[in-house]
DNA sequence: TGGACGGTTGAATAT
DNA sequence: GATATTCAACCGTCC
């Protein structure tokens, strides 16, 4: 009997150390092992991926390929540019494959894809081996031991984990690898459709990833950013297992840091160096195993002489949160990523709700503008032009570097949703998906639900102040001086609220506080705050209180069919007007019009807002655009400029 | 059953 | 300046 001919399919496990699936492949003692990566059009065209995360992925692939070659000079990572669903049947035949091995992936899309691939393998007579390795526990096992329910708290994860048993010790990297065997591709490439191409906005060159199966040189090489047509890479953070293991070594060498780490005490304002480990993107791409991290930390903690920190605030506690979100996603599938039809997610009538495909019950990736002012808030938030230096600094760091501290993510997420803009958390999650180099769908979705108080967390009256909160760590405002350089000369007294600085001082410090964020290149200008924070906070808290009182969840029939509006006052915050409407929080009208300008640009008090809301006119057959007529006026003016500010926002509204 | 309690990371004020 | 208390009051879990 001939020896196995094995394809090892790399996906979210771009490493050689502690890979249970790779070990399973090698345990077959194969005649040949093909280490492959399939260039999935889902990632190229459908998921939101900015140039920085692309670069990180390419780093990981290059490093892995070199590591493979070090173990066997005939081998490397073979990148094949076709969708796995169409490629595998041809590949099985061409390479006479007997086994396909890969690491389990419980993401909603990945499950669908892998089910298809397994079925194709079965049809071709290829044996499939799938091993869990991405998380501390198999997410499906966590769910099973949590009474079949999504894991929604750390105590549930701990209880379920206890039943599953001890977390596995890491497996050493292989010392040798079999030859890959014949790599001829004597078959036609099936080019995937690039419609819709959600990543078009990430490119300024020609996207050439599918020109040929084995790449432009026919050598299966990792593509370049240029080949993918992507815009400039700006992050200083680089990927790859070699870097990841070095970073881990450095962390572990500092025993006190490792053993006494408490996440809530780390400073979101710290840079060079940051206060946390920066290992999250390595976890995402699998260039570092979470069990490797867990046990290296745990062994330091066990030997530590002082008082070590405990989960959930300790380093290992961070991994439990990750597993919790994976467990929630594993149980809920696609519905985890949206409010609509999600039994665990509270329904809040946020502004800028997602469009819903009523056939599938899934969000489309596009959204509706129920309120022009909220859309301006959202775009100014996204591009770091809110006029709140703490928020703008974080958003600029996110856009440029692809990483911000966890508490910084809290600050901007609270601000966009329940603590300022009252904009749908799904909008924020999409921006993070686009820009974060460590974007992990489960964790990102879960954290946005947490911060928006729609799941996992409920204390919506605990609201992050963009002025007071950062001062807990950075009274001098050094973070602001780095990421909002317009304000670098401002006195610390005004650094978090520069609009309060006297005009004479503003001139002296070389930056005037004026305008609405349209001047993006002029460093002598910084915008006025886009609203009065305490006013907006009151409006939001009232809105949350009201929505909590009504108490709907995403799978409520009234949410599914749109009759939830019967339960909300027409003047409540959000697209609440009328007794009937489209499903979810969808709205029929998109653009505000016909409002007169007045010169008053001051934010209204909560009382004034209430009064204006009562006065606002209703037009028959035409939904109200915003709850406050005066705010509409201010917005109409902003909106015209807004269209010029963000010319690239083609996929929005 | 209902009341106590915990919930990784608030803010303002008092000591 | 650091730490404790109060603020107003949410949810889900647990006994």
UniProtKB/TrEMBL annotation:
What is the protein name given in its UniProt record? Photolyase/cryptochrome alpha/beta domain-containing protein
Q: Which residues form the Photolyase/cryptochrome alpha/beta domain?
A: 4-136
List the signal peptide residues: none
Chain positions of site Electron transfer via tryptophanyl radical: 350, 425, 448
Protein family membership: Belongs to the DNA photolyase class-1 family.
Q: Which UniProt keywords apply?
A: FAD, Flavoprotein
Q: Which organism is it from?
A: Neocucurbitaria cava
GO BP term, example: circadian regulation of gene expression
Locate the region Disordered.
Answer: 171-198, 568-653
Ligand binding (FAD): 276-280, 318-325
Q: Which cofactor does it need?
A: FAD
Q: How is the cofactor bound?
A: Binds 1 FAD per subunit.
**What PROSITE patterns does this protein's entry cite?**
PHR_CRY_ALPHA_BETA (PS51645)
Q: Which InterPro entries match?
A: Crypto/Photolyase_FAD-like_sf, Crypto/Photolyase_N_sf, Cryptochr/Photolyase_FAD-bd, Cryptochrome/DNA_photolyase_1, DNA_photolyase_N, Rossmann-like_a/b/a_fold
Query: Basic and acidic residues composition bias: which ranges?
Result: 185-194, 588-598, 614-626
The molecular function GO annotations come to: deoxyribodipyrimidine photo-lyase activity; DNA binding; FAD binding
Q: Name one GO cellular component term.
A: nucleus
- Top-level taxon of the source organism: Eukaryota
Q: Which residues form a coiled coil?
A: none
């Amino acid at each position: 009997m001939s020896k196995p001919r094995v394809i090892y399919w790399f996906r979210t496990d771009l490493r050689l150390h502690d890979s249970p699936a790779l070990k399973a492949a090698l345990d077959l003692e194969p005649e040949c092992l093909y280490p492959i990566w399939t260039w999935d059009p889902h990632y190229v065209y459908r998921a939101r991926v900015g140039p920085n995360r692309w670069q990180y992925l390419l780093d990981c692939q290059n490093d892995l390929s070199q590591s493979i070659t070090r173990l066997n000079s005939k081998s490397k990572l073979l990148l094949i540019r076709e969708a796995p669903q169409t490629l595998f049947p041809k590949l099985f035949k061409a390479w006479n494959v007997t086994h396909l091995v890969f690491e389990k992936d419980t993401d909603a899309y990945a499950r669908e894809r892998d089910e298809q691939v397994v079925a194709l393998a079965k049809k071709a007579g290829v044996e499939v081996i799938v091993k869990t390795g991405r998380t501390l526990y198999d997410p499906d096992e966590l769910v099973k031991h949590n009474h079949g329910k999504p894991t929604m708290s750390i105590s549930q994860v701990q209880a379920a984990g206890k039943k599953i048993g001890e977390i596995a010790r890491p497996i050493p990297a292989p010392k040798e690898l079999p030859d890959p065997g014949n790599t001829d591709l004597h078959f036609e490439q099936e080019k995937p459709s690039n419609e819709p191409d959600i990543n078009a906005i990430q490119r300024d060159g020609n996207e050439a990833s599918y020109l040929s199966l084995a790449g432009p040189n026919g050598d299966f090489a990792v593509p370049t950013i240029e080949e993918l047509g992507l815009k400039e890479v700006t992050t200083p953070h680089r990927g790859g297992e070699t870097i990841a293991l070095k970073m881990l070594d450095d962390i572990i060498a500092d025993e006190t840091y490792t053993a006494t780490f408490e996440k809530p005490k780390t400073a979101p304002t710290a840079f060079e160096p940051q206060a946390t480990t920066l290992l999250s993107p390595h976890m995402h791409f699998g260039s570092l195993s979470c069990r490797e991290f867990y046990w290296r930390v745990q062994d330091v903690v066990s030997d530590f002489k002082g008082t070590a920190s405990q989960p959930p605030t300790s380093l290992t506690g961070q991994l439990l949160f990750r597993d919790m979100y994976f467990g929630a996603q594993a149980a809920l599938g696609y519905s985890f990523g949206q409010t609509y039809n999600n039994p665990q997610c509270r329904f809040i009538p946020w502004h800028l709700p997602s469009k819903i495909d009523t056939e599938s019950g899934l969000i489309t990736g596009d959204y509706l503008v129920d309120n022009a002012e909220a859309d301006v808030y959202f775009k100014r938030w996204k591009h770091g032009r809110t006029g709140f230096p703490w928020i703008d600094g974080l958003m600029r760091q996110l856009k440029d570097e692809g990483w911000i501290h966890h508490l910084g993510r809290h600050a901007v997420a609270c601000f966009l949703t329940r603590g300022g803009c009252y904009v749908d958390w799904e909008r924020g999650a999409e921006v993070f998906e686009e820009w974060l180099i460590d974007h992990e769908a489960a964790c990102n979705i879960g954290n946005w639900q947490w911060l928006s108080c729609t799941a996992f967390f409920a204390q919506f009256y605990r609201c992050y102040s963009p002025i007071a909160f950062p001062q807990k760590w950075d009274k001098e405002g050094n973070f602001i001086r780095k990421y909002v350089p317009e304000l670098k000369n401002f006195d610390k007294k005004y650094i978090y609220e520069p609009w309060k600085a006297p005009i004479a001082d503003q001139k002296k410090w070389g930056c005037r506080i004026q305008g609405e964020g349209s001047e993006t290149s002029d460093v002598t200008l910084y915008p006025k705050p886009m609203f009065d924070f305490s006013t907006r906070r009151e409006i939001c808290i009232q809105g949350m209180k009201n929505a909590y009182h009504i108490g709907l969840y995403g799978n409520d029939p009234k949410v599914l069919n749109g009759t939830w509006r019967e339960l909300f006052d027409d003047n409540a915050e959000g697209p609440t007007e009328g007794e009937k409407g489209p499903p979810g929080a969808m709205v029929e009208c998109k653009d505000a019009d016909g409002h007169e300008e007045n010169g008053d640009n001051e934010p209204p008090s909560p009382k004034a807002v209430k009064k204006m809301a009562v006065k606002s006119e209703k037009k028959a057959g035409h939904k109200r655009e915003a709850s406050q007529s005066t705010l509409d006026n201010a917005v109409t003016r902003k909106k015209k400029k807004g269209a010029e500010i963000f010319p690239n926002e083609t996929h929005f509204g």
